[in-house]
Design a protein that fits this description.
alpha/beta; Fumarate Reductase Iron-sulfur Protein, Chain B, domain 2; FAD/NAD(P)-binding domain; four-stranded parallel sheet; two-stranded antiparallel ribbon; 10 strands; globular; binds iron/sulfur cluster
């Protein structure tokens, strides 16, 4: 476990947010992460609970509690504490194809479920994850690792959002030849066009896509399958097809406009 007394000795510390008047000058990320040493101290706060709710990903009354990916949170918290950053990365990659995305945009269900949070502040699991993956890029652990053996099987993945990318990554690791089709002009789907820069700057997506290309995945953008390429053609060309097109139908919020009258009245138009 982290440090047996760490949760009593150290306070929860998180990245520093830029001042509001500075942050409104652009749409970019506005958090400065902790240093590696500071992050290690945060790793020390993990108690390595016998039942680690942080990684449980349970469904309770229709809501998810704990990490839905079952990330090995207590393991890598400990590895962060002891400074074993490479091993922490290896354990993180066991369950998570894209920690560079989740450690930025995930609502941190792990922390909401953390036992430390019952009596004080939860362990900074999400920022520990961010520290692990960014260190891995810095040190080269996250570099491309193309599969050594190819199966000769061809798979088409339709849609390059998070689901399509994860499917492509897994299939490529198994040695299949994967081609991802995307109807927009850039790869990423919701990551690219649905999440603002202040949560996920686009270079983070491009950095990962470049690695996936190096590992052998082909991306074809600006191609609407069904219109630009017929399904029959793909069925002929590929051994398997994965549909990961997402749900493009918008779901409108049923909200009216409120008109403010005097301070006691609100009327709905
Ligand atoms: S922040 Fe990471 S560990 Fe926590 S719930 Fe999200 S993906 Fe899982
Ligand atoms: S619930 Fe919190 S304290 Fe317990 S193992 Fe998970 S992160 Fe550590």
């Amino acid at each position: 476990m982290g440090k047996p007394t760490g949760f009593m000795e150290y306070k929860r510390e998180t990245s520093v947010s830029e001042k509001p008047l500075e942050r409104i000058k652009n749409f970019n990320e506005f958090h400065t992460p902790l240093s590696k040493e500071e992050q290690q101290i945060q790793g020390a706060r993990c108690m390595n609970c016998g039942v680690p709710f942080c990684q449980s990903g349970m469904n309770i009354m229709g809501m998810t509690s704990g990490c839905p990916l079952h990330n090995l949170v207590p393991e890598w918290n400990d590895l962060v504490y002891t400074g074993n950053w490479e091993q922490a990365y290896n354990r993180l990659k066991k369950t998570n194809n894209f920690p560079e995305f989740t450690s930025r945009v995930c609502p941190a269900l792990c922390e909401a479920a953390c036992t430390c949070g019952n009596w004080g502040d939860a362990v900074t699991c999400k920022e520990n994850e961010h520290g692990i993956i960014e260190n891995a890029y810095e040190k080269g652990y996250a570099a491309a690792k193309p599969p050594k053996v190819r199966t000769g099987k061809k798979v088409a993945v339709i849609g390059s959002g998070p689901a399509g990318l994860a499917a492509a990554d897994q299939l490529n690791k198994r040695g299949h030849l994967v081609t991802v089709y995307e109807r927009d002009d850039r790869v990423g789907g919701l990551l690219m066009y649905g999440i603002p820069n202040m949560k996920l700057e686009k270079w983070v997506i491009d950095r990962k896509i470049a690695i996936m290309k190096e590992e052998g995945i082909t991306f074809i953008t600006g191609t609407d399958v069904g219109k630009d390429v017929k399904a029959a053609k793909l069925l002929k060309e590929y051994d398997r097809i994965v549909l990961a097109c997402g749900a493009k139908n918008p779901r409108d919020i049923k909200a009216g406009t409120f008109i403010v009258g005097n301070k006691n009245t609100l009327s709905r138009s």
